[in-house]
Amino acid sequence: MYTIIDLKNILNVLTYTQSTDGAGQMSPKRNDTLKVKLERDIIAGLLKPGARLDEVSLAERFQVSRTPIREALLQLSSMGLVQLRPRRGAVVAEIGLKELLDMFEVMAELEGMCGRLAARRATKPELDHLQDVHAASEDAVTAGDYDAYYRCNVAFHETIYQASRNLFLAEQTMKLRNRLAPYRRSQLHQNGRLSGSFNEHKAILAALIAQDGAAAERLMQGHLTAQGGSMNDFIASLPDDVLNRSDPAAVAAG
Ligand SMILES: [Zn+2]
Questions:
Q1: CA distance 130 to 132
Q2: In the chain, which ranges are E strands?
Q3: CB–CB of 184/149 below 8 Å?
Q4: CB 3.0-4.6 Å disulfide test: which of 121, 131, 244, 254 passes with 83?
């Protein structure tokens, strides 16, 4: 089940993700829960897939007892971001190659559906906002500023999710995107991907303005699939540890 509060939390996480530039500066609000802090670290890639989440050192870092740490890890595990392994403790979830490809396939469908619905339902202010974000991203492409483009990209997609006017869909799409986030950021660094992505956004925006749902859906799906160009490029863009992971079946079962 979902609530507006859940979505707000997700948006907060996304906003945070946008505000980090990979250097790890954090200014968590004091009322942030432990779970949200760890979740942000995982989504921002500060805690890498496979990294051990040791209860004792986390308790020291956050100046709390081990009980709230354990509760936070349990919550993150139910979200799929953390794996609890018997005798080995908690680790940041590792996704095997097959599972990752399956997830990208679903992600393309979710993004496509957001695009289709947004073409029918986006408001004028939302379309205006998309145009502003798109214009800002052009500056980032010109400057070759990957971090700035990444932030524009998040804002662009997030606005389309919201414009779908389907809160459940928006929530599911953001959840899955957060799980895939550690695997997607590096893809923008591939040769020519920045301007390729920009041109795809341009076509998506035109379809949304024309209220052409079928085109918006197809373009959003294609945009996601094209994140890595060809399948070989996509696989090559993944971190080495995904490709070298020895027991993807065990990961998938988690
Ligand atoms: Zn994009």
A1: 5
A2: 52-53, 82-85, 89-92
A3: no
A4: 254
Q: How far is the CA of 154 from the centre of ligand 1 (A)?
A: 7
- At 48, the pLDDT band (50, 70, 90 cuts) reads confident
DSSP H helical segments within 44-96, as ranges?
A: 55-62, 66-78
Q: Which residues contact 66 (CB under 8 A, 6 or more apart)?
A: 55, 56, 59
Express each pLDDT in 178-234 by its tens digit: 888 777 655 666 667 888 899 999 999 999 999 999 999 999 998 887 654 556 666
- Quote the distance between the C-alpha of residue 241 and its chain's center: 19
Q: Which two tokens stand for residue 67?
A: 């009980």
pLDDT per residue as tens digits for the range 132-177: 999 999 999 999 998 899 899 999 999 999 999 999 999 999 999 9
Q: Do the beta carbons of residue 148 and residue 139 sit within 8 Å?
A: yes
Distance of CA 183 from the midpoint of ligand 1 (Å): 14
User: Contact, 180 vs 104, CB < 8 A?
Assistant: yes
Instruction: Characterise 245 by phi-psi region: left (phi > 0), alpha (psi -120 to 50), beta (else).
Output: beta
- Its sign, for the CA torsion 220, 196, 150, 202, is negative
Cα–ligand 1 centroid distance for 151 (angstroms)? 10
Question: What pLDDT score does 106 carry?
Answer: 93
Give the up-direction half-sphere exposure of residue 6: CA atoms within 13 A in the CB hemisphere: 12
Domains of the chain are 4-92 (1.10.10.10), 97-240 (1.20.120.530)
The predicted pLDDT at position 220 comes to 95
Taking the centre of ligand 1 as the mean of its atom positions, its distance from the CA of residue 25, in whole angstroms, is: 24
Quickly tell me which residue has 């923008």 as its tokens: 188
